[in-house]
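Researcher: Please translate sequence to structure tokens.
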Amino acid sequence: MPRDWEERYADAEALDFTPSPLLAEVVELVPPGRALDVACGAGRNALYLAGLGWNVVAVDGSAAAIRIVRERSAAAGFSIDARVADLEAGGFAIEPAGYDLICDFFYLERALFPPMREGVRPGGLFASEIHLQDDQPHRFVLEPGELRREFEGWKILYYSESARGGRSRPSASILARRA
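Model: Translation complete:
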């Protein structure tokens, strides 16, 4: 894991633990089940889901981030299966049809799209928001329409490409249900 990520998570008190607005809008409307938070960071979404009764697996490449997830979940009395794994090198295998919800917020590893799609149980949900290509140089950005194309054949409940939620960079947001 690059050193800058470890440094980013060094001061847990300075981090924002507000869940993604897209996730918050939808999960309170569905019964809790098993969820996977891909590239969970310090656990803002994983902790939110666990607080609503979800059985959460949270994965990130940063040991410091996972330490925060574990500490905060223990302090709140939640049981989150928090794991350190190099997602870019295949360090975590997504169980086929193993999750009622998979979320991926602001992390792009294109090789994970097929296992994430397969990891959602029929009738389950995928929620994501990932930066779009713009005039700022960045390696991990989607092309316009790319996220929607990844979920062709799914029921798209919500899709947007814009700068939302106070963010300056445009992103693609999706909420999709597996048939």
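Researcher: Any highlights?
Model: The two ends are 36 Å apart (CA to CA).
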